[in-house]
TrEMBL record:
Residues 6-334 form the NADH:flavin oxidoreductase/NADH oxidase N-terminal domain. Keywords: Flavoprotein, Oxidoreductase. This is NADH:flavin oxidoreductase/NADH oxidase family protein. One of its GO terms (molecular function) is FMN binding. It comes from the Bacteria. Pfam families: Oxidored_FMN.
Length: 408
């Protein structure tokens, strides 16, 4: 049968997803001073529900408010007040759309100016060339730190379920803590958390198991995984195949395939690898290889913004189509595609030479769209470097607020 992006999908746990179009995670930087969802953030999600997506995966929510990926992110801990989170989940109440909270720990990927607790499997700092000093030096984690992280992921998942979310997605991609454990480049431990891929994946598996023991069976538990880090000596496609095989034995409802990290931002389609240079659906070839092993549905994200590419993903036997930038620019894209499959959102073009600045300018440009949708404002195009400067000014203000409230 030829599937359409509007064909429903039934997950192994019985949950039905109304169509294959998934809003992939985008950190919105719209948290309030207490790191809880603001009204603008909640309003943004209302627009995606109205726009017709089948699933929304939230921007990453931190399991520890002292370890944030950004100063206006969201944190959900065991004792956090749930009121604002309940309001957030209520956006899907009268719809068939599913809301999945992405949960994350940054590990070493923390900006120095933001501060907080910065730890990693080993004390290996980010190498960003001349931009390296923007990042904090991490400390190697103790066994107690690792146990604390496992407990936190499970506690955040249980809180998400109590707050009315349909599931969680464990962020194990893009160079954050769990991805640092998976990569031999960042995980140089000699104990049972490092070395073989079985050891490097031990933390991810322990987290999946502890979450599963904490939530009900119909609660969706998903994982976001790199197909590869695209770095010499990093997490490879062969490693990813083994991790998928290990996840096959767990109750994981779907796995999203991405790639890259801050040092090699392949998730923006610009790794040195030949496969990722294809402009559209640049992880599709990898996802197809992983699909031969996976028993659970796979989702692929990266470079999908037109209907024919979305259809190609399904024709390649990948079950879910992840889109971030396209839905940031055009939250009602699924509605457009229901009546006009040739409709294409106008994605911003960021052509800055410096790799780090280009990644930051891309994020700033897309985040500007998110913020303006959240505040019901029209987004007029501005130069990506202007977006970057405005974003940096906003971040400087928010870093001060975060440091004052949580770090100093
Ligand atoms: C502003 C912005 C924020 C992002 N935040 C997250 C995040 O919180 N978690 C995550 O897994 N990926 C995050 N991503 C990566 C996207 O989920 C996605 O993998 C990437 O943008 C490629 O997909 P696209 O081509 O559809 O944009 C972010 C991307 C952007 C542009």
């Amino acid at each position: 049968m030829l599937l359409s992006p509007f064909t429903p999908l039934k997950l192994a746990n019985g949950q039905v997803i109304k169509n294959r179009l998934v809003k992939a995670a985008m950190e919105e930087n719209l948290g309030d001073a207490n790191l809880a969802p603001s009204s603008a953030l909640i309003n943004l999600y209302r627009q995606w529900v109205r726009g017709g997506v089948g699933v929304m995966i939230t921007g990453n929510v931190m399991v520890d408010k002292l370890a944030m990926t950004g100063p206006a992110g969201i944190a959900l801990e065991a004792d956090s007040t749930l009121d604002a989170f309940r309001e957030w989940s209520s956006v899907v109440d009268k719809s068939e759309c599913k809301l999945i909270m992405q949960i994350n720990h940054p590990g070493r990927q923390v900006f120095k100016r933001q501060g907080g607790k910065v730890f990693a499997p080993s004390a290996v700092a980010l190498d960003m060339g001349k931009h390296s000093k923007m990042f904090a030096q991490p400390q190697a984690m103790t066994d107690a730190d690792i146990e604390d992280v496992i407990t936190r992921f499970a506690a955040t998942s249980l809180q998400a379920q109590k707050a009315g979310f349909n599931g969680i997605q464990i962020h194990s991609a893009h160079g954050y803590l769990l991805s640092q454990f998976l990569s031999p480049k960042t995980n140089q431990r000699q104990d049972h958390w490092g070395g073989s891929i079985e050891n490097r994946a031990r933390l991810l598996l322990a987290i999946v198991q502890k979450i599963r023991a904490s939530v009900t069976d119909d609660f969706i538990v998903a994982v976001k995984l790199n197909s590869a880090d695209f770095q010499r000596g990093g997490f490879s496609l062969e490693d990813a195949e083994k991790v998928i095989a290990m996840l096959n034995d767990q109750q994981v409802d779907f796995v999203e395939i991405s790639g890259g990290n801050y040092e090699a931002p392949a998730m923006q389609g610009r790794a040195a690898d030949e496969y990722t240079l294809a402009r559209e659906a640049y992880f599709l070839t990898f996802a197809q290889k992983l699909q031969r092993i996976a028993k659970m549905p796979l989702m692929v994200t990266g470079g999908i913004s037109n209907y024919s590419t979305a259809s190609k993903v399904l024709a390649s036997k990948i079950d879910l189509i992840g889109m971030a930038s396209a839905l940031a620019v055009q939250p009602d894209l699924p509605l457009w595609w229901q009546s006009r499959t040739e409709f294409k959102p106008k994605l911003p073009k960021v052509t800055v030479k410096d790799k780090t600045l280009r990644a930051l300018a891309t994020m700033a440009t897309i985040r500007r769209h998110l913020s303006r949708h959240g505040h019901n404002k029209i987004t007029r195009p501005i130069h990506p470097m202007v977006s970057l400067v405005l974003d940096q000014m906003k971040l400087a203000r928010l870093n001060k607020r975060y440091r004052r409230n949580f770090v100093d």
